[in-house]
Design a protein that fits this description.
- This protein has 19 helices and 8 strands.
- By secondary structure, it is mainly alpha-helical.
- The chain has 3 domains: 91 residues, no CATH class; 98 residues, Orthogonal Bundle (DNA polymerase, domain 1); 239 residues, hpI Integrase, Chain A.
- Strands 1-2-3 form a 3-stranded antiparallel sheet, covered by helices on one side. A 3-stranded antiparallel sheet has the order 6-7-8.
- Helix 11 runs parallel beside helix 17.
- It is elongated, with a radius of gyration of 28 Å.
- The chain starts with a strand and ends with a helix.
C-alpha cells in the first residue's frame, strides 16, 4: 500500500487546487482531501514556492501533512492499524491553527477590548457546542455553526445575542479565508444570521384571542403541544425551553407544615418558584398525557416517571440535553407558525405583565428573578408570600388560563388524545396507559 501527497488538477474560483492524499494498493485507490489549497503553478517538488501568498504558513502545513502520511504508513504496514483506521486518521486532518492563536496574531488592528470580545466569543462557541478541547480553524465549519445557533436558542439566548456571536465568528472566518486557511465560502449564508424581528424586539402584546385562534387552527398533536408549552412557560414566570426540561417538583411539607406543591428551577443562578394550584396541575397533566401519547414508544427515556404527577421530563436525561434539542426545534417552528413568535417571547410577556401591576418593589424583584426568594416563598407569615401568590392568581385570570385549558382539552379530544380525568385511575403502568389511549 502506498500513500502519496498530490495536487488536484481542478482549480476553484480563487485559482487554488487542493492538496490530497492518494492511497494506492492492488485493486484499491482512494483520494482524501486535506485543508491545504495552493496555486498549482506554485507547487514545485513537494514544496510551495515563495510566489504563493502565505507561503510560509502553507509550507508548515505541508510538512505536517508529510508527517501525517509517514505515521499512517508506519501504523498500516506494522499491522497496528487497519486500512479503515488509516483512512479515518487522514480524514481527521491536522490542527492547522488554534482559533485563539489566530485571533491573537491577526487581530492587532483592533482595541484590546475588541480582541477580548472575539476571544470570549470563541469561549461561548466552545461552551454551547460542549467541546472540551482547544478549538481550531477547521472547527469553524457549517455543521458546527448551525449546531451552535440551535443550541444557543434552545438555551434561551436572545436572537440578537446569537447574531452578535455569529457576526464575530464570520469576521474570523473571513480573515482566515484571506490567508487560505479556510477555503469553503459557503460556511455562512443569509439564513444563518437572522434579521432581528423588530416586532419581537419591542414588547409585543399577545392577546388571549391569538392563543385561542392558534388552538383552533392546530392541525396535529405536536402543534397543540407547542401551544400548551408556550402557555406553561408564560405562567411559570417566563421559562425558557431548557428550564422547562429541568424544573423540579418540591413539596412544601419538607420545609413547613403546609402541603403545597411547587415547581422550582434556576434562572441565571436564581431560584424561581411556581406554586401548584388546580389550573397549573391540570395544565401539567394535559401536557404529560400528550407527551406520553407521542413519545412513549420512541423516546420513553426523556419522559418523567408515569406516576410522577408534577414533572414532565426525566431529570437524569435532562443532563444529556442533546436528546431534547430536536424535539424543541420542532416545537419552536410550530409556535412561530401558529402565533408568530418564538418561545423567548414567553419571558417578555411575563416581564411586561409584572411591570404593569401594582406590587412592592421587593415583590417585583423576586417575581422577575432578581432576588432569590427561597427564604420568603414558604413563609406564610410574610406579607410578600401573599403578594406573590396574589400575582399568580391575577396572571391566570388575565390570560384566562382555565378557558385555554378547556379549549386545549377539547382540541386534544378531537385529535384523538383522551382526557386524563376520565381514565387515569384505571392505569397502573405507562404501557396500560398507551394501550388505553390507542383505543380512545
Amino acid at each position: 500500500m502506498r500513500i502519496l501527497i498530490k495536487i488536484s488538477s481542478y482549480r476553484n474560483k480563487n485559482n487554488l487546487s487542493n492538496i490530497y492524499f492518494d492511497i494506492k494498493g492492488t485493486n484499491y485507490r482512494k483520494k482524501i482531501k486535506t485543508e491545504l489549497y495552493v496555486n498549482k503553478d506554485n507547487y514545485i517538488k513537494d514544496g510551495i514556492s515563495k510566489t504563493e501568498s502565505n507561503h510560509i504558513s502553507k509550507n508548515i502545513l505541508l510538512e505536517k501533512l508529510k508527517l501525517q502520511k509517514i505515521k499512517a504508513l508506519e501504523n498500516l504496514n506494522s499491522g497496528k492499524w487497519k486500512l479503515s483506521q488509516c483512512e479515518k486518521y487522514l480524514k481527521n486532518g491536522i490542527e492547522v491553527k488554534s482559533i485563539e492563536s489566530f485571533i491573537n496574531k491577526n487581530f492587532n488592528d483592533v482595541s484590546i477590548f475588541t480582541k477580548k470580545d472575539y476571544l470570549n466569543t470563541i469561549g461561548v462557541f466552545r461552551k454551547h457546542l460542549e467541546i472540551n478541547r482547544e478549538l481550531y480553524l477547521k472547527d469553524l465549519n457549517r455543521v458546527n455553526l448551525v449546531q451552535f445557533k440551535a443550541n444557543t436558542q434552545f438555551n434561551g439566548i436572545k436572537i440578537s445575542s446569537v447574531n452578535a456571536y455569529l457576526k464575530k465568528l464570520k469576521v474570523i472566518v473571513n480573515k482566515a479565508r484571506k490567508q487560505d486557511l479556510i477555503v469553503n465560502n459557503k460556511i455562512f449564508d443569509n439564513n444563518l444570521i437572522e434579521k432581528t424581528n423588530k416586532k419581537e424586539s419591542t414588547v409585543r402584546k399577545i392577546k388571549v384571542t391569538e392563543i385561542e385562534k392558534a388552538i383552533f387552527n392546530s392541525k396535529d398533536i405536536y402543534e397543540l403541544q407547542a401551544i400548551s408549552l408556550f402557555i406553561a412557560m408564560i405562567i411559570f414566570k417566563g421559562m425558557t425551553p431548557i428550564e422547562m426540561v429541568k424544573y423540579k417538583h418540591i413539596k412544601n411539607s419538607t420545609i413547613t407544615n403546609s402541603n403545597d406543591n411547587y415547581i422550582v428551577y434556576k434562572s441565571k443562578g436564581i431560584n424561581r418558584f411556581v406554586k401548584f394550584n388546580e389550573n397549573i396541575f391540570k395544565l401539567i397533566q394535559i401536557i404529560k398525557t400528550s407527551l406520553y401519547f407521542t413519545h412513549f414508544d420512541k423516546n420513553p427515556e426523556i419522559l418523567a416517571a408515569y406516576n410522577n404527577e408534577y414533572e414532565l421530563f426525566n431529570l437524569n436525561v435532562s443532563l444529556e440535553i442533546k436528546k431534547h434539542k430536536n424535539l424543541w426545534n420542532i416545537y419552536q417552528k410550530k409556535i412561530k407558525q401558529l402565533i408568530g413568535v418564538s418561545f423567548r417571547m414567553a419571558n417578555t410577556i411575563y416581564i411586561d405583565f409584572i411591570n404593569n401591576i401594582e406590587i412592592s418593589h421587593q415583590a417585583r424583584e423576586i417575581l422577575v428573578g432578581k432576588i432569590d426568594a427561597s427564604e420568603i416563598i414558604f413563609d406564610q407569615e410574610n406579607l410578600l408570600y401573599h403578594q406573590i401568590n396574589g400575582v399568580q392568581k391575577k396572571m391566570e385570570i388575565e390570560f384566562q388560563l382555565s378557558k385555554l385549558i378547556a379549549l386545549i382539552e377539547n382540541k386534544m379530544t378531537l385529535l384523538g388524545v383522551i382526557n386524563l380525568d376520565d381514565k387515569v385511575k384505571r392505569f397502573q403502568t405507562p404501557l396500560d396507559f398507551i394501550k388505553n389511549i390507542s383505543k380512545a
